[in-house]
Design goal:
- By secondary structure, the protein is an alpha/beta fold.
- It folds into two domains: 3-71, Beta Barrel (Ribosomal Protein L25, Chain P); 79-246, 3-Layer(aba) Sandwich (Alpha/beta knot), CATH 3.40.1280.
- It is 31% helix and 27% strand.
- It contains seven helices and 13 strands.
- The chain has helices at 23-31, 91-102, 122-142, 157-163, 182-187, 209-217, 232-246; strands at 3-5, 11-12, 17-21, 39-43, 48-57, 61-71, 79-85, 106-111, 150-151, 155-156, 169-173, 196-201, 221-223.
- Strands 7, 8, 9, 10, 11, 12 and 13 form a seven-stranded parallel beta sheet that branches. Strands 1-4-5-6-3-2 form a six-stranded mixed beta sheet.
- A hairpin with a 3-residue loop joins β5 (48-57) and β6.
- α2 (91-102) packs across α3.
- The longest helix has 21 residues, at 122-142.
- It is elongated and about 60 Å long.
- The two termini are 23 Å apart.
Length: 252
Amino acid sequence: MNRFFVNAADVHLPTNEITIAGEDVKHISKVLRLSEGDLVEVCDGEKYGYIGKIKRISKQEVLLSIEEQMPLKTEAPIEVILYQSIPKATKMELIIQKTTEMGIKSIVPIITSRTVVQFKDDKDKEKKVERWQKIAMEAAKQSKRGVIPSIHFPLSLKEALQKAQENDLNIIAYEKEASQGIKGLLTSLVTENIKKIGIWIGPEGGFEEEEIDLAKDKTIHSITLGPRILRTETAGFTVLSILMYVLGDLGG
């Protein structure tokens, strides 16, 4: 069954109806060729999922009658934020797609000393974020997520470090870290109190030592991912997989 996302305000419980608007209208009518009486899944992006039956299709909206309401059960018990140094080419798109499938809550693109990607201006950044957000939405639909991960406006490392102080735990992957791994770190912590975690991944050339020192000053834990050097598009998957297995819902 096809899944769509709406705002909570588009769910009208008094009339037992849901309104779908925007690009999904054309997708429903022209691409999927659905019609009155067909069933679709809808998520409000917050607490509930719905089975809706198509009542009416117009150029502006699709009106559904609510056939069933159920609480969302596809979101992990921990909130993981990926602070990803922006990589070259389409690597960022791959990172967004796969981490969305694995349960990431949000992604903050960061600009570091060795970030190669350059933006012309804020408008260029906004265009990129719009593209990345669309990729997250499509991945969320495909993987039956109940929430679409939010893709933030690109930040400098210092800006991101400041905002990350609200997280319960922050870990930064660093190839020169020799002693502390994720397993050892988690063993030393009271994990029951950890609900919001930040993962920090460097660009193709890695973080500079000064950036690692800056992160440590903000109580971010430096970790090793083993004796092999992982690509920037692989490192985030690896850390997220481990966290979701140990603290989340990966593996049941």
